[in-house]
Amino acid sequence: MGIPTERFVEKVDDGFLCGICSEVLKGATLSGCKEQHTYCSECIKSWIPSRGTSCPACREKVTESSLFGLKALDRIIGGWRVKCEHAGAGCDWQGSFADLASHLTDDCLYQLHPCRFAHKGCLVQVSSKTLYRHLEYGCDYNESICPRGGRDCGGEGKGIYLARNSSEHFTVCGRHK
Ligand SMILES: [Zn+2]
Ligand SMILES: [Zn+2]
Ligand SMILES: [Zn+2]
Ligand SMILES: [Zn+2]
Ligand SMILES: [Zn+2]
C-alpha cells in the first residue's frame, strides 16, 4: 500500500500515484516494462507472484528481477509536506514525509504505543495523551504501593501489588484492619 493522498498538504499530481493501490508511491518501483510504469514496492512485489507476470497497466511481461527501485523519486516524495496521521484526532504537526516516522515514534501525543506494562500482560494501547489516565485508573498491571502501610505494609508482596489485586491485598494487609 502507498501513502494516502489526503495526508499531503498540497494536491499530488496523478503521475505520482501507484497504478495498483491508487495512493502516492511508497518505495517507487519500475515494473521493468518499456512504458516505465511505476508502482509501490510492496504493491508490485505482491502482484507478480499472485496475479501473474505482466505489468498491471500495459500487460508487458515483467518479472521479479525486472523490478527497479527509484530512490530519487522516493527522495522527492520524502520532501513533500504532510499532515500527521493523527490529524483527525487533533495533532496539528506538519512536516516533510521523510520526518513523519520520527514524529510518530518520538513526539506525537496521539500515536498509540503498548502500555508500559505490556511485558506483564497489559494489552491496552495508549498515547501520551491517555497514558496518565490509563495508568491511574485503567491499567490492571500497574503496581500500586499500599496506601495504608506503604512499602512496609505487612501484607503479601510487602505493600507493592498490582492494581487489579488491590482487593486481595487489602484482605491480607497488616495495617488494614
Ligand atoms: Zn501501491
Ligand atoms: Zn507497463
Ligand atoms: Zn502527530
Ligand atoms: Zn496498562
Ligand atoms: Zn497494605
Short summary:
The chain has 177 residues and is of the alpha+beta class. The protein is built from five helices and nine strands.
CATH superfamily of the largest domain: Zinc/RING finger domain, C3HC4 (zinc finger)
- How many strand segments? 9
**Rounded mean pLDDT score:** 91
Q: Give a list of the ligands.
A: zinc ion
> What is the string of helix and strand elements?
EEHEHEEHEEHEEH
| CATH architecture heading of the largest domain | 2-Layer Sandwich
What structural class results from the helix and strand content?
A: alpha+beta
Globular, elongated, flat, extended or rod-shaped: what is the shape?
elongated
How many domains?
Answer: 4
Q: Provide a count of the helices.
A: 5
Task: Output the CATH class name of the largest domain.
Answer: Alpha Beta
The end-to-end span amounts to: 61 Å
What is the helix fraction of residues, given as a range?
25-40%
Rg from alpha-carbon coordinates: 26 Å
Indicate the proportion of strand residues: 5-15%
**Uncertain stretches:** none
Question: If you consult CATH, what is the topology of the largest domain?
Answer: Herpes Virus-1
